[in-house]
Amino acid sequence: AQKITQTQPGMFVQEKEAVTLDCTYDTSDPSYGLFWYKQPSSGEMIFLIYQGSYDQQNATEGRYSLNFQKARKSANLVISASQLGDSAMYFCAMREGYSGGSNYKLTFGKGTLLTVNP
Amino acid sequence: KAGVTQTPRYLIKTRGQQVTLSCSPISGHRSVSWYQQTPGQGLQFLFEYFSETQRNKGNFPGRFSGRQFSNSRSEMNVSTLELGDSALYLCASARFSTDTQYFGPGTRLTVL
Predict the structure, then answer these.
(1) How many CB pairs under 8 A join A and B?
(2) Rounded CA gap, A27 and B108, in Å?
(3) Among B26, B36, B98, the residue to mutate for chain A (most A Cβ within 10 A)
(4) How high is the pLDDT of residue A1?
(5) Test the B interface: residue of A104, A107, A113 with most B CBs within 10 Å
(6) How confident is the model at residue A41 (pLDDT cuts 50, 70, 90)?
(7) What pLDDT, on the 0 to 100 scale, is given for residue A2?
(8) How distant, in Å, are the alpha carbons of A3, A79, B33, B99 from that of A25?
(9) Residue B73, pLDDT score
(10) How far is B79 from chain A (nearest CA, A)?
């Protein structure tokens, strides 16, 4: 079973509008971390935002916010006021074993290609 | 503060050869992880090093190996290259294993 599911292969949004990128996850570990990364065509993965499983509030970083619904196991990324430079691939990732286990790797979803139209 | 650097950025090899990729982490970061990205398989974890010790390894054949030096710089080696090894290889560093990982620009390997 996939641990991270991103159901939107591609999304289009008009410049200055908000957009939500979906991510659902599957884990039985009570301690985990959720991440969003942006990958422009150049290839570098850029860290955007992090949410810990025990965090009470949704994470925010500038124009990025994470809509964390623990019971539904979803961690959607919301980008407000889209800009042309936001056009890129976006990956949701999870790290399990945060409570001290040996599994420190990131598991990634397949990604969503976001295109911002002028 | 300088970001993660990877060398070389591009590499072309032929089947059967071996290759070594290098990664210099952000200053002060002691954890280095490697990932392989292909269109078919997406992003897959290769291995993670912390203080010169491999702490976790992904599901890759033994042809893929790595090491970390005392200055936290890391190398990964792929021996007996196959066509399927063509990929973008990404290195990520973190202060410690459970911290946020910051990625380098990647090395794009093409195997002919």
Answers:
(1) 55
(2) 32
(3) B98
(4) 65
(5) A104
(6) very high
(7) 76
(8) 5, 20, 22, 19
(9) 98
(10) 23
Length in residues, chain A = 118
**Please, are residues A45 and B90 in contact by the beta-carbon 8 Å criterion?**
yes
Q: Which two tokens stand for residue A81?
A: 């006021």
DSSP B26: P
Query: Rounded mean pLDDT of B69-73?
Result: 96
- Calculate how close chain A gets to B81, using CA atoms only, in Å: 22
Helix H or strand E segment including A35: strand A32-39
Confidence class for position A31, pLDDT limits 50, 70, 90: confident
Q: Which backbone phi and psi does B84 adopt, to 5 degrees?
A: -70, -10
Is residue A22 a contact partner of residue A74, using CB atoms and an 8 Å limit?
A: yes
A91/B contact by beta carbon, under 8 A: yes
Residue-wise pLDDT tens digits, B19-29: 999 999 999 99
Q: Cβ B98–A95 below 8 Å, yes or no?
A: yes
**Hey, is the C-beta of A118 within 8 angstroms of any chain B C-beta?**
no
B97 touches chain A (CB under 8 A): yes
Q: How far apart are CA A91 and CA A52, in angstroms?
A: 17
A97 to A54, A58, A94, A104, A105: CA distances (angstroms):
13, 21, 10, 7, 9
